[in-house]
Predict the 3D structure of the following.
Amino acid sequence: MSKNNDQPGKVSRRGFLKALGTGGVGLLTPSGAVAAGKGRVPQPSDNELATLLDLSRCIGCGECVSACRESNAHKFPEPVKSFPAMSPSKRAKPEDWSDKRDVEDRLTPYNWLFLQNAEVEYQGEVYDINIPRRCMHCQNPPCANMCPFGAANKQVNGLTRISDSLCMGGAKCRTVCPWSVPQRQSGVGLYLNIMPRFAGNGVMFKCDRCYRLLEKGELPACIAACPEDVQTIGPRGEIVARARELAAGMDGFIYGLEENGGTNTVYVSPVPFDLIDKAIDKDGPRGGRGKVAGGKAKGLGPGKPHMGPVKDVMADETNLATATLLAPVAGVVAGVLGLGAKLLKNGEEGSHES
Amino acid sequence: MRARPYPAWISRLFIFSVAALAFTGFMQMPLAKRYYLTEVPGMAWTGDFYMVHKIHYLLAALLLFVVGLTVVNWLRAWKDTLVLTRLGALRVAVVGGLVISGGLRVYRNLPDVTLDPAVIVTIEWVHLGLVMVLGAVALIALVRKSSAYAVRK
């Protein structure tokens, strides 16, 4: 843990702990709805915890993957079989990873972090890039904003977590996630106690950035276990500054500052991310690349996130929030100007609607 | 189908916005694709969560316009000649709760707002619960043929 601090320019442990302290605040005050249309990066919360991944350091040893599994094993689903029959059976199929817990080449409910590899030729040099992939922990996460039950939430310390006791497993979070990160396990969760045949299909699982360890002031397992100090965690303001410094030093590139309006996972690479996106998972199911909600970016298939550009998928809603704020004001103005009142005396003539 | 002593177009706008909000609200749940609604001609959009969400916001703006207009008209003139029915008053309270919880929902989705998870769950379930209550009360009002919110004094 302490070795992170030995390197020049690394985010301070003091800053990390200070950012952890913001978790107790309860809520971050907004700068108001007037901020709705403004750019978000890095405005919203420089104190959120963010992680920086220096891809030039990752050797693909897999220590982070093992540490993640070990640290989170007690959170993994334990479904009881057989699963309840679902209706309509053609559309509502169970997703069962419980017999495939060893799968390590993609995200699953039992594997919240995996390594991608990209062999990229750039400026006459061949780079072998290894990329730890997990939840990006967006600054304005669509999975949390659009969950109809409030099961997915972003916390004030910048991580997004899905509550396994509230999740119905409808997988909407996976559909609206620009990287399709959350993965479903059927046969567990709240839906079993409600209408297992007609509503829900399990629980969605993904990286929760080892929130219990963070609460204790410790590093997430993948960061603590890394022998190459690939990852750094700290207040986003410091992380962004460090990422820019690092990228400038290697004449490299950054992923996560603009993507989806900004994420709390920032990658720095010596090669462009569009080349990485084309090269990653080259043996994987490229045919399965589907259109990702809210953007032109393509996915690499279920559980295998892409590294393409992602527009801010909640931006339209943010702009429409201003409309909802102005609409009642417009109604009041219209009323004051006499719209409606004049018609009252004629009301009975024209009001025989159902 | 009783005559209402307030302008018909306000009623129609209110009924349309509430009905469409209820529909797009329920479509926030992942139901459209599972239950083949997306296959009904002209309904494919119900499977696009972002589209449904944006339409819900626009309809909310329409409802809020109608609410603002009605409230100011009520305060300026209608309260002297109209009185809320009991079921009308109940529905006004429920709509008020829906507006507040919906407003908090929109607020929560602003990029620089992070509410406590317990608060968010409360907002979600209050919003979902109130729309069910509104549906039940509206049904009772319809069956009892007293669907007008207000009558002349």
About this structure: The beta strands of chain B are 82-84, 150-152. Chain B has four helices and two strands.
